[in-house]
Automatic annotation (TrEMBL):
Cofactor: [2Fe-2S] cluster
Stated role: Regulator of autophagy that contributes to antagonize becn1-mediated cellular autophagy at the endoplasmic reticulum. Participates in the interaction of bcl2 with becn1 and is required for bcl2-mediated depression of endoplasmic reticulum Ca(2+) stores during autophagy.
Alphabetized GO MF terms: 2 iron, 2 sulfur cluster binding; metal ion binding
Residue ranges annotated for the Iron-binding zinc finger CDGSH type domain, each copy included: 67-105
Keyword Transport attributed: no
GO CC entries: endoplasmic reticulum membrane; mitochondrial outer membrane
Subunit structure: Homodimer.
InterPro entries linked to this entry: CISD1/2, FeS-contain_CDGSH-typ, MitoNEET_CISD
Name of the protein described by the UniProt record: Zgc:110843
Sequence similarity: Belongs to the CISD protein family. CISD2 subfamily.
Principal subcellular localisation of the protein: endoplasmic reticulum
SMART domains, per the entry: ZnF_CDGSH (SM00704)
Length: 120
């Protein structure tokens, strides 16, 4: 991009404020740059928000709660319990097999936590 001193010489009467000379050529240079910067900012902001929401583990379980916690007594487990670790189960905190679809869609490899009594 070659620019000579005549590139920024005013064609019309210059508007001088605080020692700065402003002319049409400045506008034709600055306006596309400002439009590009504003467009880039808006695109980055939109993409940033979308990727932030996608990175959340919990998408729908007790969203009104500041923290999702479940407490289960050992005596209530019985001989075996299967707990969800992918956060996609409709029976959360129990696994309903939704991790299979999640893994297929995302390439992830999550599965349940299985707690069982040792075989005698
Ligand atoms: S449904 Fe989440 S681990 Fe099975």
């Amino acid at each position: 991009l070659a620019m000579s001193a005549s590139t920024f010489l005013p064609l019309s009467k210059p508007d001088i404020r605080n020692g700065f000379t402003f002319c049409k050529e400045h506008l034709t240079t600055i306006l596309p740059l400002l439009a590009t910067a504003a467009g880039t900012y808006l695109i980055c902001r939109y993409v940033g928000k979308r990727s932030c929401k996608k990175s959340r583990v919990n998408r729908e379980v007790n969203k009104d709660s500041p923290k999702v916690v479940h407490s289960i007594d050992m005596e209530d487990i019985g001989s075996k319990a299967v707990y969800c670790r992918c956060w996609r189960s409709r029976k959360f905190p129990y696994c309903d097999g939704a991790h299979t679809k999640h893994n297929e869609e995302t390439g992830d490899n999550v599965g349940p936590l299985i707690i069982k009594k040792r075989d005698a």
